[in-house]
C-alpha cells in the first residue's frame, strides 16, 4: 500500500482545509497508508514557530519511510511553510503533491515583489502535481505560476444517506467566517428586506459580536452562533431549506457542498469554483457579490414558490453526489499511485 506523508494545518483547526484533511484521514485507508504531520495551528507566535520547527523535523525523519509528500497549502505563511517542505522532499527524491485551498492566493501573490514571485513560482514548479479546486483555478495556476502538471480535484463531502422530501417552515442557514469576505452583513441586510420574518441561523467565527450588533440594529431576529461541531452542523442542515453565502472570493466552500448534500438550495455568488458547481435556476440561485437587493429577490423567490424550492433542492443534492468522499478517494488514490510509479 502507498505510504503518504501528509502535512498541513492541524486537523483540530476550523475551516475548509481542516475539514478536507479530516475526511482524508478518516477515509484514506481504503487507498493508502497516511501519516499526518501538523505544521501549523492558530495561537501565539511562539507556539506557531515551535510547531512549525518540530513538524518540519518530523517530516525530515519520516520522509525516508514515505512514498510521497502530500502538502495542503493556502496563502501567505502557509506557502512559506509548505515551500520549505517541498524542497526538502525533492532532496530526498520523493514525489510531491501540492493541494491548494487558498481563496485569496491570487491577490496575495500578485501583490508580492518580483523576487518573491519568482521564488514561489519556482517552488510550485518543483511539485510533481498541483491539485486545485476547479477548472477555473487550474487555468489560473497554470498561467500565473507557469505550471504544467495541474489537476482539478474539487472537494470531498460526506453525504447523508437520505434527505427528507419536505421540511416544515423556512430556515435559511449561513456557515462561515463572519466578515466582509463571506458577506455576512449582506445576508442580514437581505433578510431584513424580505416580506415576512424567516428563521435565520448563522454560525461561524470571526466578527461574531459585530454581526450580532448589526442584526439587532436591522431588527433581524437571527440565531447567531459561534463555530459549531460537525454533529451540530448536520443537525442544523437536516432541518434547513436554503444555504446562503454571498462571498467576495472563494475556493470551493466545504459548507456549500455539505449544504447541497442535505438538499438545501444554495443562494451564492459565482466566485472561485462556485460557478462550476451551482448553475443559476438549475440547482441554485446566483447573485453578484455585494448585490443586496438581488440577494433579497433570490431569497424571496424561494419563499414565494415552494415548488421552485423543492426542485432546486433536489437538483442540488444530485449535483454533489459525484463529490462523495468515496469517489474522491478513488480519484486521489489514482493520482498518488501515478506519482509513485512514474
Automatic annotation (TrEMBL):
UniProt xrefs under Pfam families? Glycos_transf_1 (PF00534)
Which segments constitute the Glycosyl transferase family domain?
A: 169-318
Q: Does the keyword Transferase apply?
A: yes
Family, according to the entry, reads as follows: Belongs to the glycosyltransferase group 1 family. Glycosyltransferase 4 subfamily.
Q: Which InterPro entries match?
A: Glyco_trans_1 (IPR001296)
* Protein keywords: Glycosyltransferase, Transferase
Family annotation (PANTHER family): COLANIC ACID BIOSYNTHESIS GLYCOSYLTRANSFERASE WCAL-RELATED (PTHR12526:SF640), GLYCOSYLTRANSFERASE (PTHR12526)
Q: Does the keyword Transferase apply?
A: yes
Q: What is this protein called?
A: Glycosyltransferase involved in cell wall biosynthesis
Task: Specify the signal sequence span.
Answer: none
Amino acid at each position: 500500500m502507498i505510504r503518504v506523508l501528509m502535512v498541513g494545518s492541524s486537523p483540530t483547526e476550523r475551516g475548509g482545509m481542516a475539514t478536507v484533511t479530516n475526511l482524508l484521514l478518516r477515509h484514506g485507508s481504503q487507498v493508502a497508508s497516511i501519516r499526518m504531520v501538523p505544521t501549523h495551528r492558530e495561537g501565539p507566535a511562539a507556539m506557531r514557530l515551535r510547531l512549525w520547527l518540530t513538524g518540519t523535523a518530523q517530516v525530515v525523519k519520516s520522509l525516508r519511510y514515505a512514498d510521497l509528500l502530500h502538502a495542503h497549502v493556502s496563502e501567505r505563511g502557509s506557502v512559506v511553510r509548505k515551500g520549505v517542505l517541498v524542497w526538502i522532499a525533492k532532496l530526498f527524491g520523493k514525489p510531491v503533491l501540492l493541494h491548494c485551498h487558498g481563496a485569496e492566493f491570487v491577490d496575495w501573490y500578485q501583490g508580492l515583489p518580483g523576487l518573491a514571485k519568482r521564488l514561489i513560482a519556482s517552488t510550485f514548479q518543483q511539485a510533481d502535481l498541483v491539485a486545485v479546486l476547479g477548472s477555473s483555478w487550474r487555468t489560473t495556476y497554470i498561467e500565473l505560476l507557469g505550471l504544467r502538471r495541474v489537476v482539478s480535484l474539487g472537494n470531498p463531502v460526506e453525504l447523508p444517506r437520505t434527505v427528507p422530501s419536505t421540511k416544515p417552515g423556512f430556515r435559511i442557514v449561513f456557515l462561515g467566517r463572519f466578515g466582509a469576505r463571506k458577506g455576512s452583513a449582506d445576508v442580514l441586510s437581505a433578510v431584513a428586506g424580505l416580506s415576512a420574518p424567516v428563521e435565520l441561523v448563522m454560525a461561524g467565527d470571526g466578527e461574531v459580536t459585530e454581526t450580532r450588533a448589526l442584526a439587532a440594529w436591522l431588527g433581524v431576529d437571527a440565531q447567531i452562533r459561534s463555530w459549531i461541531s460537525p454533529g451540530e452542523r448536520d443537525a442544523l442542515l437536516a432541518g434547513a431549506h436554503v444555504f446562503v453565502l454571498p462571498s467576495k472570493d472563494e475556493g470551493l466552500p466545504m459548507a456549500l457542498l455539505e449544504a447541497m448534500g442535505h438538499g438545501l438550495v444554495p443562494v451564492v455568488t459565482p466566485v472561485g469554483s462556485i460557478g462550476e458547481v451551482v448553475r443559476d435556476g438549475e440547482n441554485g440561485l446566483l447573485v453578484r457579490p455585494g448585490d443586496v437587493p438581488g440577494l433579497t429577490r433570490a431569497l424571496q423567490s424561494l419563499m414565494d414558490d415552494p415548488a421552485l424550492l423543492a426542485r432546486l433542492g433536489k437538483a442540488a443534492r444530485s449535483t454533489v453526489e459525484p463529490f462523495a468522499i468515496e469517489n474522491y478517494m478513488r480519484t486521489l488514490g489514482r493520482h498518488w499511485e501515478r506519482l509513485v510509479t512514474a
